[in-house]
Structure formats: C-alpha cells, structure tokens
Amino acid sequence: MVTINHRQGEMTKFRTHWCGRLNKENIGEQVRLSGWVSTVRDLGGIIFVEMRDKTGFFQIVADPEKNPESHKIFSQLKDEYVITILGIITERPEDTYNPNLATGAVEVYPENIEILSKSKLLPFMIDDSQEVNEDLRMKYRYLDIRRPKTINNLKLRHDVVTAARNFLNKNEFMEVETPILIKTTPEGARDYLVPSRVQAGKFYALPQSPQIFKQLLMVGGVDRYYQIAKCFRDEDLRADRQPEFTQIDIEMSFVEQEDIIQLTEGLLIDAFKAANIEITPNFPRITYQEAMSRFGSDRPDTRFVLELFDVSEIMAESSFAAFADTVKDGGTVRALCVKGISGYSRKEMDDIRNMAVSFGAKGLAWITYNLDGTVKSPVMKFLTEEEMNAIKEKANAQAGDIVFFVADKHKIVFDVLGRLRLHFGARLGLIDESKHALLWVTDFPMFEYDEEEGRYTSVHHPFTTPNPEDIDKMTSSPGECRSIAYDVVYNGTELGGGSIRIHSPELQQNVFKALGLSEEEANEKFGFMIEAFKYGTPPHGGLALGLDRLIALLAKTDSIREVIAFPKNSQAKCLMTNAPAIASEIQLRELHIKLNTPKNK
Q1: Is the pLDDT score of 599 beyond 80?
Q2: Secondary structure of residue 109 in the 3-state scheme
Q3: Which of 101, 218, 241, 377 could bridge 540 with an S-S bond, Cβ 3.0-4.6 Å?
C-alpha cells in the first residue's frame, strides 16, 4: 500500500524523506528517496550521482566493492532519469563536504536502486546557472519547472497565498468563488468573449475582475469576502501583464478607508514574512497630487531622493515663448536637477533628449552648471539673469549639476519627467536596493478626460465613491472631483488598489450621468446592480492586490512569467500547447460563428 500523506521517516513504497532535508542528524537511518538524476560523475569506477526532488539535492554513491549490484544500475543512469533508492545515511569524509548544499555532509551507498523512468536527451540543462532562451523554456515549461529557481518561485507563491488565506480567515473573511462566465461590462480594457452555443449570437465575457459580484456579496450580507481570483484582459502584453492573471480580491462591509488600509497592511506584513522579509505597519501616505508633483508618478519609487520642481511661475513671464505660452494655455513647466553629471558628452545629452521625446515630450531643455563655475544652456539666451538665478535657487543646483525642463500639459510633463527620474535613479546607482519602500497613494481623481472619446471616464471604475467634499463638482468641474480611492505601492510598483464603493442608487446614477451614460445605457449595462442597491446596501469598500506582481517582486524577477506555472508569451500564446488554436468547422457551426479571417492566419 502506498502512503501519500506520510510523516518524515515513515516507510512508504517510494519515500521516507525528502532529498533536501537530510543532514548529520539522520546518520544511521535507513531511508527511501525518490527523484531525478541531476548529475552523474564516474571517477574511475566509483560513481557519484546527485539526485534531486523539489526540496533540493542529495548525493548517492556506487562502489563496485561496497554495493556492486547498485553499481551496475548506476552505470546506466543519465540526466533526468527518475529513480528510487534504499540505503543507510552515512557521513561523507570531511574533506569532501559540500558547504553549498544543506545535505553536503552526508550521503548514501544504496543497497537497492530502481530506475522508474528514463529521459531522452534534454533540450536544455536543468541548471539555474545556464542561460536559456525564454521561448525554449516556455515550450518545455514542464522541464523549466524542475529548475530550482522556477520551482522555488512557485513555492514562494504557495507560501504567500497560504499566509494571505490564513490572515483573512482569522479576520472573519469568507472565501467565495464568483462566476467566470459573465456579462460584458465596460471596465477599461478589452474583454475576452466566449460565444454561447445555446443562446445563438450572444456572448459571455471573462471577468476583468470580480468587482460587481463582490459588491453584490456585500448586499447579500457576506460582510467580509475574499477570493484568489482569476481575471482576464485582452490587452497588449509586457513583462508585468498576462492575458490571465490572479489577484487577492477583498471586500468588506461597514468600513471606511482607514479600516481597509490597516487590514491590508496586516495582510502584507504576513505575506512578506512568508518571503522572509520583515516590514512594519503604518506605511507612509501621500496624496495623488503630491505624488505626481514630486515624483511624476502615482506609483513613486521613494528609495532614492530625486524630485521634480515647478518653475511655471518663473517661466510664465519669460521671453522664452515656448515655455511662457504653455503656462498661459493652462500647461506647466517642471524640472529635474540631476547631481554630478555636468561632464556628459554631447552624444549622451542627445540620447537623453531623444529618450524624453520617445516618452512623449515635444522637446527637452537644460541648464548645465559646470565644475569650473560656467553655466551653459541652449535656452539661456531667452532667460534673464533674474530668471536664471531664480531657477538655480529653486533647483538648489550646484557646480556639476544639470537641470532638465519639460513644458506641456500636466499629464505629459509628469510622465516624461517621472520616467527620466527613474532612468537616472537606475543609471546613477541612486536606488537603495536594500530598502522595502511601501506607501499609500490616496485622494485619486474621480474622473479623467478622454481626448479621443471627448468625455470623462473613471480613473478607477464607475463604482468608486466620490469624496463627499467634491460631490457638487461632479457636474460643474468633474476634473477637480476627488474619489475615496487608494493604491498601495512597493518600490515604485503598484501592488494593488481599491476604493470605498457607492452604496446609494441615486449617487450611482449621478456618477453614470457624469460619465456620459444615459439612464437607458446605465440600466442596460448595470441595471441588475442598481436594482440590488434598492434593497438595503451597507457601506462597503475593498481592494485587490496583484498576486503575480507581488510574487515577482518578492522573488526579485522582472517578469511575472517567472512566477506563473504555465504563462503565455509576449504574443499571448502558450508555446507548450500552441494555444490559441484553430477551431474545427463543426465547433464553429455549433457556436453559430462564421470566420472571415484568412485560413493561413
């Protein structure tokens, strides 16, 4: 009989111990180990094999004199064969200890070894030290998972999810699953559509988030909900995006913003502890406006000191028309003082200007304060001595510094300078990599104007409640209306965000109106939700943390693909299974679909 849930040391058909958990305390014990052959070394008759399971590596040895029967089988072993062995733990000779392995002081001369499965020649080595093309790793992902780095990332993900679940369970939360097949709703990104066979011509959508359902759970009296929720967005991919992703989704009744912030900090403390990182509560808080003004970003990296400053007032009356006209037209002129780079070459300055243009700037101006006390600038001829002195004072510029300027609409200026700030932070080694900089950004705008659509859209989503102080501005000045919304940021990356929700059907209708939705459109898209709110809805709010992004940061990897078991590549394709694939004619007919895409695409 095979025992699956065995205790360490209890005899089973395949395992008494894990490979990576044996040490000197186990000397003299008989063990049964199972795993993969990692390396085989034949040293003049004595064969050393490093076997591996998910916990680590262990050395087994065959000597033609000590264990001749096992030696015959050892001579057949190749990389990635699956084996099981039985033997007594012995201490290695002291001069052969391997300090790089937790098991490096012990070994086994198996009295019995069995080959359970053979492996063909590998497409790449199962070794973290080998650089392997990512597409090749994705094609053979089941092999890539065997690499210690990948399986450790998955173990870290498991540990963090377990910590989150334990924390939420202890705090009266209930885990509830919400539907995957839903009605398409406008949430900012493109939906994945699923055709219905039984409802001809109609489509489900895959949820971009469980937003509507978790609010309806609050109407239903669940009070405290969470879910490790699968979400889907059909959008262009990058390192931190996947068509399907996972979030730790939370909703609570009878709460204010402060309640959600405190709970989230407690959850993150436990999640970080699972990754052996200690953080403390009471994360710093800054408003959205302050974050943009100081850092040019609503997810500021505060591990280094380099901040934007405003020179609009100085430039408003200058003879430099490009700057003065921008301010008069409602734009802004902001600057960044970068220390110690006055020696940059002409090419380096051209590269920085081209970078700023690629970020969206019309151009980039600068003033260089040379070490010899001279000052040079392509715009100096447009500025008076008084204006130059005011800029230097505002920048706190010293010899060796360069001050960069961008003039444009607020959004463009913040984006360009915010990205230049990060560029210099990385290039000049300003970022303190040992820091764990967590903070809250609050008081987000309720609406932003969409130039293409010619109307206001929600900054978060249309169920976010406006700041009570700004409700009157929803119709008169929607761009000035703040919301009760908040994001938690870690080292310059948004970990998650949320808001206090609207629980009044009248206020919800007014928000839809501010977004340009007629009553008919609102009822068509959200009528069931508006109706639900008429039956007694508690004040409620919530937050969602991006699980993939959190794990990637804790694992110190740039791509969330490294912490997902079976990810898609940058073209949203699974190279292992070749999904998405062509549907058969029979399937298409059953779904009432006729394609007009050329068959060779």
Answers
A1: no
A2: coil
A3: 218
> How far is the C-alpha of 357 from the C-alpha of 364, rounded, in Å?
8
CA pair distance 460, 463, nearest whole angstrom:
8
CA-wise closest residue to 73 among 38, 107, 49:
49
Element of type H or E holding 153? helix 148-170
CB-based burial, 235-262: b 16+ in 10 Å, e otherwise: eebeebbbbbbbbbbbbbbebebeebbe
Q: Where do the domains of the chain lie, and which CATH numbers do they carry?
A: 19-117 (2.40.50.140), 130-281+549-601 (3.30.930.10), 304-431 (3.30.1360.30)
Amino acid at 62: A
Which residues, at least 6 apart from 599, have a Cβ–Cβ distance to it below 8 Å? none
pLDDT band of residue 476 (cuts 50, 70, 90) is: confident
**pLDDT(4) > 60:** no
Binning pLDDT at 50, 70 and 90, where does residue 180 land?
very high
Please answer whether residues 444 and 298 qualify as being in contact, where contact means their C-beta atoms are separated by less than 8 angstroms.
Answer: yes
The predicted model scores a pTM of 0.91
- Give the confidence band of 516 by pLDDT, cuts at 50, 70, 90: confident
Query: Which tens digits make up the pLDDT trace of 361-380?
Result: 999 999 999 999 999 998 88
DSSP 9-25: T---SS-SS-GGG--GG
Bridge partners of 496? 488, 545
Say if CB 150 and CB 562 are below 8 A apart: yes
Overall average pLDDT of the 11-25 stretch: 91
Banded pLDDT at 529 (limits 50, 70, 90):
confident
Nearest to 415 by CA among 566, 267, 258, 291: 291
Rg (CA), the chain: 30
Beta strands in 399-519 (DSSP E): 402-408, 438-442, 447-450, 455-458, 485-490, 493-500
